[in-house]
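Pasting two entries for a bug report.
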Amino acid sequence: MVRALIKALFFLALMAGVALFLSLRSYSAFTQEELVAVVQCEPAPAGASYGFLIEVRQMAGGVPGRREKFPMVGEQWSMGGDILKWKPWLVFLGAKSCHKLTRLSSRYGQARDEMEKPRAVYDLNGGSTPPWRWLTRWGVALPFVDAVYGNAVYVPVRPGRRWGVYVTHSGYLIRPLPASFS
């Protein structure tokens, strides 16, 4: 009787351990974020024909790339790209969303301003390429693909601020970076 009770307790402890491991693995897989770009907003020099300057430094696997500067207009800046989201069971097994930053653009808070005022739009990484356009059209027909879509995020212009653009399981997000970030 004691031996059976010890075996049952051992089995329950083992199952609790497996459940805890799977819960932590699931939490980690679905909340992971990767820094893909560092963006700094700078004021335009006096007399410039644009409103502000955006400096973009893309990141690949934590390694910073070259700095690029883009003259911008408007009240906000936006960065977007293509996202390929895997089926949840693949994410659980460790597959990360695929992405490609494709565009940096200016933005206004009001739709009317978007239609009437000047804009600035730049391709990043060659823009959306034929393979991504094919995936956008046909990717959901593949058994291991959950969704393929474009995604963009934006924030107000704040000269002197630095932002981190991150890719997550479901798309891009922007967060201010601390002054100590290098």
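Entry 2 (this is the one that rendered wrong in the viewer):
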Amino acid sequence: MAGELERSDIDRAEITALLHRYARAIDSRNLDDLRHVFTPDAAIEYTMDRGTKLDLPKVIPWLRETLRIFRQTAHVISDPVIDLAGDTAHSTCRLVASHIQVELDGRERTVVEGGAYTDEHVRTPAGWRIRARRLARHWVEGEYLYPDQVQLFDEPTGPAPR
């Protein structure tokens, strides 16, 4: 019994780390790192305005283009609830994400949103991976601008020059 408890604690810790690796890959824009977060055939759905539902090979270039409208992002993932069933698991966790945009005239705006990720996980030879993800947005503070209204950034940058 103790060995089972220890294994489940390790599995939960590994899945929690996986959730955080996702946030780091997004915020650093090291999007190829998502290949170590998701299974190759993962189904990823962002349910929001301008959202999408794609498999991993298509979501990486979609994110690369979509994230260009932000100078910087910060995704904070918390409160994971992980239900284990052998080599599969389901989780939900909360998200608060800040997004900084720079208008064409140089003014910055910050949009903050909250939501939840619902994930299906699978244990692979390389460790736990997300096989399916759904982001549900619960609230937004501020309003996002479109690509033709903001400066575009291929990677996150520090504060805009004043």
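Dev reply: Rendering is fixed now. As a check, the viewer should reflect this: The chain has a mean pLDDT of 93.
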